[in-house]
Amino acid sequence: MPLTQSGSVPGARFVDPSILARIGNLDLLARTVVDGFINGLHRAPYFGASIDFAEHRGYVAGDDIRRVDWRLFARTDRFYVKQYEADTNTNFCVLLDVSKSMGFKSREVSKLEYASYLAACLAYLAHRQRDRVGIITFDSEVVTHVPPSAKHFNILLHTLDRAKAARPGQLADPVKKLAEHFHRRSVLVLISDFYEDPDVVLEAIKPLKFLGNELIVFHILDPAEVDFSYDDASSFEDLESGEQLPVVPESFGDEYRKLIAGHVNTLSTKFSEHRIDYTLVNTKEPLDRALFGYLSAREKLMRVR
Amino acid sequence: MSFLTPLFLAGLAAISIPILIHLIQRERKRVVQFPSLMFLQRIPYHSVRRRRIRHWLLLAMRVTAIALIVFAFARPFFQQGALAAAAAGGGAREVVILLDRSASMGYGDHWDRARDAARRVVGGLSADDRATLVLFGRNAEENMRATSDRARLLAAISAASVGSDATRFGPALKLAESILSRSTLQRREAVLISDFQKIGWGSAEDARLSEGMTLTTESVASPDATNLSVPSVTFARSAFASQERIAVTAGVTNRADQPARDVPVTLAIDGREIETKRLTIAPRSSASVTFAPFTAEANARGTVRAGVDPLPADNAFNFVVAPSAPISVAIVENGDRTGASFFLTRALAIGTTPAFAVDVVSVGRATPAVLDKRAVLILNDTQFPSVAGGAALKGFVERGGGVLVVAGERSSWPTDAADLLPGKLGAPVDRLSGRSATLGYLDYSHPIFEIFKAPRSGDFSSAHIFGYRAIEADPMSRVLARYDDGAVAMAERRAGAGRVIVWTSTLDDSWTDFATKPVFLPLVHQLVRYLARYEPTTAWMTVGQVVDLASTAAQIRGDRFVVTPAGQRTTQRVGSSGLVELDEQGFYEVRPAGATTGRPQTLAVNIDPSEADLTPLDPSELVAAVTGRATQAAEAAVAPTPLSPADAERRQALWWYLLLAGLALLAAETVISNRLSQKEKFL
User: Fold this and answer.
1) Could you report the predicted ipTM of this complex, rounded to two decimals?
2) Which residue of A158, A224, B319, B427 has the lowest C-beta tally within 10 Å?
C-alpha cells in the first residue's frame, strides 16, 4: 500500500485520502486507518479496559452486591460500589452535514467522502472502546437518524456509505432539533464546512453543549476553497443556490483568501471561547493525520481533567 | 457635418453592448461550480469590472464598427461639400425654360426682357447641362427639344415672337414636369419667365412639380402698368328708309391707377375711319361710347380703337357686321275662313333676332313660286297646293327647306310626297266630350323643346286641345310630343338637308286654345328657327377658339382656302376636316379656291379680354403652389443655390463608405477574436 510520509508528526505514517478512496468498505477503511495509526503510537489511546477501576459510589438498592467494595465497608462501615471505566461508556454520535456544498471536490475526494472516512474512523475508535455509536446526517433538516447503540456501528457505516450531498443546507434549524435528542451525556462530533456566519454557527450549536455533551467540531474544506487556485475568469455557480457570479480569480484571489482565513480564525476563536474542540481539516491532508491531531488534543484535555 | 436622419444617432448607445460583453459575457461562457459564493459576493464588484477588459484591440474594433454603422444610418453629409457641389455644378442639370409668349408680353419691353432672361439661363448652362425651350400661352409647346447646344437655344429664343394667346401657367408647368421627370440627369430645374398675370393661374390648377425638381421664376412685370382695352362692342339695329342701320357701342376699360383723359376712340369699317369720339375714363373703371349708326354691307369688317398705350394688342377690337337676314316664311292657308293664320302671323311678327318675313297665301292662289327663296313653308290646316306639286316639295325639303304641317280637318297630303310626312294622317279625333286633351309628353332633348327644359320654363299642360288628327308615326320619324292619351301631337321627319314637322292640331282657336297660352310664341319661334336651320352669326371670336368652316362657311362648296391675319394661306380640300384654330388677332378670310374677286367670308378674332388685366401674381405663391414648398428657389439658374440636405446627402453618399468600413471592421474583429479565443486557456 503506498503511503505518504509527513515530517510534522514523527513516526506517523499517513495514508493519502485518494488512496483511501479506493477502499470501498468503510469498515476496512476505518480499521486500516485506526489500527495503523494506533500501532504507530507509543501509548495506547484507550481510556482503559472494563476492569480498570474508575471510582466509588454509594450503594443504592438494586446494585449488584458483588460489586460492593467490602474492604472499604470494613474501614468505613458504609457500602460503596466500585465502578470501572467500562461502566463509564458513553454515547458517541456523529453529526454529519450532507448539504450540497459538501459534495464539492477539486481533487479525487469530495468533502463529504472525506467527512465520511473521518466519521467512520472516529466511530471505529469509539466502537472499539465499547462506546455506543450513532449518527445523524442533516442538511436543512435531519436526513437520517441512527440513535447511539453498541450494535449500531454497522448501521452507521451503512448510513455513511449512502450519504449524498443533494440539497442545500442550513445549520441552525436541524441542529436545534438535534439538541432535543441528546438526553444522555454524549460525545458529539460535528462535521461540516460551515458556510454560515460564525455567530450563527455558534448560536446554533451552543445548545448541543447544554446537557454536558462534549462537542468536537471538524471543519472540512477543500484545497480549492482554501487556496482559490483558479486561473481564468469564469462564472462561479453556488452549488447550493445555483446563483452565478462572474469572477476573475486573479483579482479576486487575494481578497478571497483573506476572507476565508478570517472566517476560519473567527470560528476557531469563538469555539475555543466556548470550550468546543475545533479542528480544521483540509481534504488534501491524510486522514490519519487529522485523527492524530484530534486525539492529541483529546489526550491533552484528559490529562487536564 | 450634418445628418439627414440624426435620430439614428441614438443607436450610439449600442456601443455599450460590446463593452458589457467584454465585461460580463466573457466570464459567463465557463461555469465553475463552487461550494458557496458567500465570500466572493462580499468582494466589491466595480474593482473587478474595471480590470476585466483584456482585449482592448477587439473592444476598440467592435465599438468603432458599431459607431460607423450608426453614423451610416444617420446619413451624414458635409454642408460645405453641398455648397461646393452646387457651385461647381455638381452634376449635370436638366433645365426647362418656360417662356411666356402670351399677348400681354407685348407690353412695353416685357418681351425683350423675357428673352434676355432666357438667354441668361442658357448662358449659365455648363457643358453637361441640357435645356428645353418651351413657349407657352394658353397652351405650351416644346419649341426646342432638350439639347446642350447653346447656339441653337439662343437662336430659338431670338426667333420666338409674342403671340395673341391668353396666359395659362398650368399646361406649361405640366409639360415641364413631364420633360423633367423623363430626364436622367441629377438636377432638374424649371425656369419660368413671365409677366405673371394673375388671371393665368387658377387655384384649381393641379400642376405640380415632383420631389427633387426646382422651379425658378423670373418676373418681367412692370409695376404700375397702364393699359387701355376695348373688351367688347354691342350693336343696335334700326330700320331706316327700308335699310337697316347699325349703331356700334364700344366699352373701353382703363386698368391704370390714373384717369385716362381725352382718349380717342375710333370706329373703322372696312378700313375706313367712320367716326372718332373722345372719352375720359376714371381709374380702374370702364366707360362706353356709341357711334353714329351706319348702313353696313354684308361681311363688313369693323374695328374700334381706343387710345395708345404700351400694349397695343388689346386697344383694337375687331368685329364683322352684316345686315340682319330675316327668315322667309310662307304660310299657306285654306282661305275658307278669315283669321286662320292670325295667331301665327302675330307671333312671327315679333321676332328680331332673327326677324321673320312672313307671306300668307291661300291655297287657291298659290303659285309654283311659293317655294322660291323660302326657308320655311307652313301648311296651315290646308291641303297641299296642287300647283306646287309633290316633286317640287320634295326638292324643296331635300335642298334644306323646312315644312310645318298644321294638321286640321282640312289638311291633306300629296301621295307622291307621302314619304316626306312623318306618318299617315288619320281621321280627326274629337275631344270635346269629356276632358279635353293636353300635352302629356315632350321630347326635351329635341332642339325645339330644349329651351323649355328647365323647371318653370313653359307650361304646356295648360293648353286644352279639343280635336286633333290621328297620325300613325312611321319608324323613320321622331315623335316630339304626345297628348295625354298617348296620341302623337308632334312628329318630325328629315329628308335630305330639310325637315318636315307635323303638328296634329291647329294653331288657331278652332280646335285648341293653345294659341292663347304663353308658350305659344316661343314654341312657334323655335319651330321656325329649327325648320329654317337658323344659326346666329357671331360678330367676333377669341384667339384660341376652333371653328368648323364646314358649317360656318357652308355656302362655299368645293375647295376653299383660308388667309390668316398674318397673310398665311392654307387650302382646305373638299371632304377634309374644316377645323381651323384661330391663333392670331385680326380678320381671317375664307374664299372659294380660285376666286379672286367678290367679298370673302370673314371671321373677326380678338385677344382674350382677360389678357388686358396685367395685375401680377406674386411668383413665390406660384412656386409654393407648384412645388409644395414655401421657399422660392430664386435665381437658381443664374446663381446656383445650395443643394437641399437630401440632395447633398444623396450626392455625397457617405453612408455607403461608413457602412462598408463598419462591416469590414466587424469581419476583421471576427477573425482576430477567433484567433485569440483559440489561444485562450481555460480552467
Assistant:
1) 0.76
2) B427
Give pLDDT, residue B609: 86
Distance from CA of A247 to the nearest CA of B (A): 7
Residue A256 touches partner B, C-beta closer than 8 Å: yes
Backbone dihedral region of B598: left (phi > 0), alpha (psi from -120 to 50 degrees) or beta?
Answer: left
Nearest Cα neighbor of B321 from B346, B345, B289, B293 is: B293
Query: For residues B610 and B137, is the Cβ–Cβ distance under 8 A?
Result: no
DSSP H or E segment with residue A278: strand A277-282
CB contact under 8 A, B35 and A237: no
In Å, how far is A193's CA from the nearest CA of chain B? Answer: 9
SS3 A204: helix
Contact A248 B51 (CB under 8 A): yes
For residue A104, which residues of chain B lie inside 8 Å, CB to CB? 33-35
What CA–CA distances, in Å, run from B422 to A54, B404, B445, B489, B682? 162, 11, 18, 12, 115
Q: Which residues contact B14 (CB under 8 A, 6 or more apart)?
A: B66, B70
- What is the Cα–Cα distance from B402 to A11, expressed in whole angstroms? 157
Rounded Cα distance between A58 and A73, Å, is: 11
Mean per-residue pLDDT, A24-35: 66
Split chain B (683 residues) into runs of 10 and give each run's mean pLDDT: 83 82 61 84 59 72 89 82 55 88 90 92 85 89 83 90 88 89 85 89 78 87 86 84 84 89 91 90 91 85 90 90 85 85 90 84 81 88 77 85 90 81 88 85 91 86 90 90 92 90 91 91 92 84 83 71 86 76 88 76 88 87 79 46 72 85 91 75 38
- Map residue A13 onto helix, strand or coil: strand
Residue B244, C-alpha cell as written in the block: 337697316
Per the CB < 8 Å rule, is A240 touching B27?
no
Q: CB-based contact (8 Å) between A101 and chain B?
A: yes
CA distance A192 to chain B (A): 12
Enumerate the residues of chain B whose CB falls inside 8 A of the CB of residue A236.
Answer: 31-34, 37, 40
Q: Give the pLDDT confidence score for residue B322 in this predicted structure.
A: 80
pLDDT bin (cut points 50, 70, 90) of residue A83 is confident
Three-class DSSP category at B345: helix
Cα distance between residue B643 and residue B449, in whole Å: 64
Strands A234-238 and B31-34: parallel
Domains assigned to chain B: 2-83+649-679 (no CATH), 90-224+615-639 (3.40.50.410), 237-322 (2.60.40.10), 327-531 (3.40.50.880), 541-609 (2.60.40)
Asked whether the beta carbons of residue B39 and residue A263 sit closer than 8 angstroms, the reply is: yes
CB < 8 Å to B37, chain A: 236, 238, 241, 243, 245
- pLDDT value at residue A35: 65
Read off the pLDDT of residues A108-165 as tens digits, 9 standing for 90 and up.
889 998 898 888 888 888 887 777 889 999 988 888 988 888 888 889 888 988 888 8
> CB neighbours (10 Å) of residue A176?
14
* pLDDT single digits (tens) A211-233: 677 888 899 999 988 888 887 77
User: Which residues in A lie closer than 8 A to residue B22 (C-beta atoms)?
Assistant: none
C-alpha closest to that of A103 among B39, B37, B33, B40: B33
Could you say which of A241, A256, A263 has the minimum Cβ distance to residue B43?
Answer: A256
A232 and B30: CB-CB below 8 Å?
yes
The whole-angstrom distance between residue B39's C-alpha and the CA centroid of its chain comes to: 92
Task: Give the one of A225, A237, A252 whose C-beta lies nearest to B31's C-beta.
Answer: A237
The residue of B24, B25, B40 whose CB has the most chain A CBs within 10 angstroms, and thus the best one to mutate to test that interface, is B40
Residues of A in contact with B47 (CB under 8 A): 251
Residue A301 has pLDDT above 90, yes or no: no
